[in-house]
Amino acid sequence: MRPLNYRTMTMATLFFALSVSSIFSQPKFPVPIVGDESGFVSIFDGSSLNGWEGDPVYWRVENGAIVGEVTPETILKRNSFLIWRGGTTGDFELKLEYKVSEQGNSGINYRSFEVDETPFALKGYQCDIDGKGQWSGQNYEERGRTFLALRGQFTQVEANGKPVEIGSVGNKDELFGFIKKEDWNECHLIVRGNNLVHLINRQVMSIVVDNDAANRKNEGLLGVQVHVGPPMKIEFRNIRIKKF
To answer: Do 136 and 205 meet the contact criterion of CB atoms below 8 Å apart?
Structure first.
């Protein structure tokens, strides 16, 4: 691009040129708003599981964080959830920090429902979390339509329940580069109507527009998961929600 010669331009042309120049000089990613916590309320007191319910074999509080842990002596036969009993999730935003072990597999369920006769089991939308980076950030429907959007995908779920990729929010592997291994990461969910957005460390990981009116859910429970498989550990802290 040649340098702009502002002296030879009309006012209208100058205005357009300055606008284009401004666009090209902007950073690749938007600058985050520091302390953007208006309307958020804490739903974890940092010292107890008050307001939450789950199997005490797998869930405890330690060092200001909710800890979900599966040991060699407590291997799971099915996924188990710690369920928030302080309300439901409809249109909302959720912010929290998580840290997962390398072998860990977990998730944050929302707009979910308890499974009859199966204690601490949830069915519904999930923001996936795992230590190896295969699934983190994707939208997976637990006990339902399964994969709604992989990391990097912008999908639309059709009336037949099948997701169709209509865009991209980035390369799956490059997006995983924003996630810190075995360290604290910030997860941010933005859920309004049938639009479901998952962010990790301020990067959009997946977007779903759910047009499957017969199967989508507009409201339901919030919970966090320990997953079947090898021994694992997941930690959550600074859990805040904003409802609309």
So the answer is: yes
The token pair at 90 is 């409809």
Angle at 88 (CA atoms; ends 85, 92), nearest 5 degrees: 130
Over pLDDT 70: what percentage of the chain?
A: 85
3-state SS string for 72-115: CCCCCCCCEEEEECCCCECCEEEEEEEEECCCCEEEEEEEEEEC
Whether 2 shows a pLDDT value over 50: the answer reads no
* Cα dihedral 207, 25, 38, 190 in deg (nearest 10): 0
Confidence of residue 35 (pLDDT cuts 50, 70, 90): low
Return the SS3 of 23.
helix
Q: Does residue 170 belong to any structural domain of this protein?
A: yes
Q: Which two tokens stand for residue 51?
A: 């307001």
Per-residue pLDDT of 154-180, as tens digits, reads 999 999 999 999 999 999 999 999 999
pTM as predicted: 0.85
Total domains, the chain = 1
Would residue 73 count as lying in a domain?
Answer: yes
Residue 200 three-state SS: strand
The tokens 């994969």 sit on which residue? 147
Is 145 a domain residue? yes
pLDDT per position as a tens digit, 115-132: 999 999 999 999 999 999
Residue numbers of the domain that contains 135: 40-243
Cβ(193)–Cβ(215) below 8 Å: no
105 beta partners = 130
Looking up residue 124, the CATH number of its domain turns out to be 2.60.120.560
Does residue 166 lie in a domain region? yes
